[in-house]
Predict the structure.
Amino acid sequence: MSDPFQLGQRLQARREQHLYRHRRVLESPQQARIQCDGRALLNFCSNDYLGLARHPYVVQAAQQAAEQFGFGSGASHLVIGHSHLHHELEERLADWVGQPRALLFSSGYMANVGVISALLERGDTVVQDKLNHASLLDGAQLSRARLLRYPHNDLQGLEQRLHQARGRVLVVTDSVFSMDGDLAPLPGISELCQRYDAWLMVDDAHGLGVLGGGHGSLVECGMSPLQVPVYMGTLGKALGTFGAFVAGDETLVEYLIQAARTYIYTTALPPSVAAATLASLDLLVSEAWRIEKLQQLIAQFKQGAHQLGLPLMPSDTAIQPLLLGQSERALQASDALLKQGFLVSAIRPPTVPQNSARLRITLSADHCARDIELLLDALSRAAITQV
Ligand SMILES: *Cc1c(COP(=O)(O)O)cnc(C)c1O
């Protein structure tokens, strides 16, 4: 067959650059000890930070809702797919993050693309941290606004971009950076936004559920949630379910209902997914020990890794990357760990900048102290050293 797009060549180039991606097949629930590609492995790469993805209370809530309301939502929110479970979840989420209202989206990717493209148009400016999640950058492309990027967590760089900005201005940042684990200087960013009359949007995909007592990064940073006009959180990470939401004031949410195309032109989440998330929110309160336990495991890992001289990055969150540099090195380290029964993913460009390939270790309340000891032993045997 002819190959007018040179797909074969393009795949070969990826292989040669150690950038080819393979999928593993998970044969157990998402948890610390998984069955994967026919092997028992200790899992250090999920985003299920609290171990809620398979929690019986969450599963039961989904089952009961499916029995009562069926499975599919059957339509978009604006047609007849918006069930009372979605509605209740929006109210609970708004309440939980301290915002007047919240709007559910089918995924975090869709929320980010939908919000940025609905708020901005040609002539406006969106200012983003260089390490922001791909969905935030894609939203900027789709909006046709001018995209200005500033060096990671650099307030001076941000201020320079704000000087150059024209039209309406939206500043967008991850709270916890997904491949680095560090926290954006949110109070400083918020202050600059106020000074330059820009709106701030915070993507709290990795903060909600684990930071600020589970209420998210704004609470963690001692901010009032009302200082951030556009707050976005995802439900597929610490909350262990699926979907996302955008929270803000009444006007923002009503505007997004009218204008966010990724909200309007898509089928609503199954109501049972909303029921499962309501159950997760219950657990953030009734099993708050999970957040505490995760913090202890993070401290244990950091201390052990430091003693071993591992190339830790400046992170206090459940995302604990080890910086290795070349993609090939990251792949070799990941393979060496896999041979010992540990699943740790090698993150390579374009997900991270050139020459900053890394092992992305994620910890979960589903791990125990012994699991961390085993991981540290395996890392020391894999001979991972400072770059
Ligand atoms: C995972 C993630 C998203 C996307 O959320 P999904 O619900 O998985 O589509 C958006 N932003 C950040 C920072 C993320 O880590």
Observations:
- The chain has a mean pLDDT of 96.
- The CA atoms of residues 107 and 295 lie 27 Å apart.
- The chain is about 40% helix and 15% strand.
